[in-house]
Amino acid sequence: MTKFVGAEYIIACTLIDLKKKGIDEIKVDDLCEYGIQMQDYSIAAKVDAVFLTAFPYVEEAIYDFSDYFRVNRSADGEIKSISLVEDKKIEDLASRFVGSIPLDILSVIEEVLGKIA
Fold it and tell me: What would the pLDDT profile of 61-114 be if each residue is shown by its tens digit?
């Protein structure tokens, strides 16, 4: 059975990974690219999942979880990147999002994130 992985889970896992490396935000374009890589890897690993990281899903996740994610905009108002709101920590992300990701999908996410800077 196909599992759909919402953008909020990818955003949370990516922010956790980046914060551990001292990076405080994720560019939306990069996030979409990571989703493509996760999809490719899941196909190769025979994990039946669909990663919803196209921009409309990312935008929806940002607004649905605005208590966790902050939008950073360019001068012309375009969404540039996503960061963690000031009063949240990576432990909050892990507790809210990571614990509910099935292990086979989490391994796909970790494999791809392990390859980014």
Answer: 999 999 999 999 999 999 999 999 999 999 999 999 998 899 999 999 999 999
3-state SS string for 4-33: EECHHHHHHHHHHHHHHCCCCEEEHHHHHH
Residues in a beta bridge with 111:
none
**Residues 6+ positions from 94 with CB-CB distance below 8 Å:** 12, 16
Q: What predicted TM-score, i.e. pTM, was given to this entire model?
A: 0.92
Of all residues in the chain, what percent are helix, strand and coil, respectively (each to 5)? Answer: 55, 15, 30
- How far is residue 35's CA from residue 110's CA, in Å, rounded to a whole number? 12
Query: What is the residue type of 2?
Result: T
Go through the chain and tell me how many residues it has. Answer: 117
Residue whose tokens read 């892990």:
94
Q: 112 is written with which tokens?
A: 């791809």
